[in-house]
Amino acid sequence: MLPGWLRLCLCALILCGSVGAIAAPGAVVRLQVDGVIGPASADYLVRGLAKAVDEGAQLVLIEIDTPGGLDSSMRAIIKAILASPIPVASYVAPGGARAASAGTYILYASHVAAMAPGTNLGAATPVAIGMPGSPSKPEGADKGETDKPAQGEKGSSDAMTAKQVNDAAAYIRGLANMRGRNAEWAEQAVREAVSLSAEEALEQKVIDYLARDLSDLLRQLDGKTLPAAGVEVTLATAGAPLISHAPDWRTRLLAVITNPSVALILMMIGVYGLFFEFSNPGSGVGGVLGGISLVLALYALQLLPVNYAGVALILLGIAFITAEAFLPSFGVLGIGGVVAFVFGGLILIDTDVPGFGIPLALIFTLALISAAAILAIVSMALRARRRQQVAGGSTLVGSLVAVAAVRDDDPRAGWVALQGERWQVQGASPLRPGQQVRVTARDGVHLRVSAVDEPPPQGGH
Questions:
Q1: What are the structural domains of the chain?
Q2: What is the pTM of this model?
Q3: For the chain, which terminal residue's Cβ has fewer other Cβ atoms within 10 angstroms, N or C?
Q4: DSSP 399
């Protein structure tokens, strides 16, 4: 049983640790999106909205500055906003910020859309992704988005692009109609990649408010009634406490491992760690580090828009580079492995969204490191092969050894300790313990010996 004073101290520590982490009822919860919208930012916003509901906040304010992001992450955020029983206000700030592409969709989905002076939004056309000549995948249809407008070209690729752009246009038009905003301009932002400044957006009824800062926005929202999940909510934001929820360790970790470059490095560490563990079992370091890294890499890749042909090429390249260390291919497997790895890295991430590409320098560096490691292993193996053999059956003949023991029933038979093993020996004449003998031949698990002072037998056995 803990003493009373100790329990009071523990309670005080718990209460102090929770201060600032829990919003007071009726507070305004502030979340921030700064940068590309991906799995980490989607997880952060979705959990932030849920946490605000649990805390009894009256409004969630999302401060946005983004060039766009992945369609899957954008849609997860919009679903959470549409289902939220608390009104959500998206605010593009500070001055110089933007809500481009996916940010425009999120702005249209929010209960309140606001911008600071000197900001802009728009350019919401789906991005063409994949290899040149392949059908594009738009934001409204799959996992990427673009800054270029659709051109209405001929062919099956153009038909696919048109379908995807139409889908994206219908999506944002639906959001505009739901919130009573300018649906015509929203469709233009998708089809023609147009943009607007904050003042123009307010004039064309794309946004609801133009606010200098957060205090100005909260002042304008005070007393407003907004529908949220079918319920009318009246805001009392003037003087309401503003609670900021910064990204926690989970969000920061997710942001790191879902970086495509980090995911590729983790996959390399995982594969090579397991390879070295299987090659030299017992140490455990390679297996533990490789297993953890590979699981993290696979988790990250399943959250990203991955081209599985790229994954297959990377794994095939690693297999070829590894096989070069064991098969006499004179470099064919190694070179093929490097080429496969480079092409796999180039097509691994199936999107042109900014912030989700893998630098060419990293791809070539990892390929060269893999090739250098295998060349080092091959050179060590070749050097070891040229060395003179110092152990094994062929080195037993001619060895000098002392007799350890002699059999009682046959004085010419006994045992010796040689190369860390116990051998049965057979001599041409009686043996005695401690006598120096020379191994003249090997017969299975038996050795034939002769006394050092005796001439070696002629003719082998």
A1: 23-250 (3.90.226.10), 258-386 (no CATH), 393-451 (2.40.50.140)
A2: 0.67
A3: N
A4: -
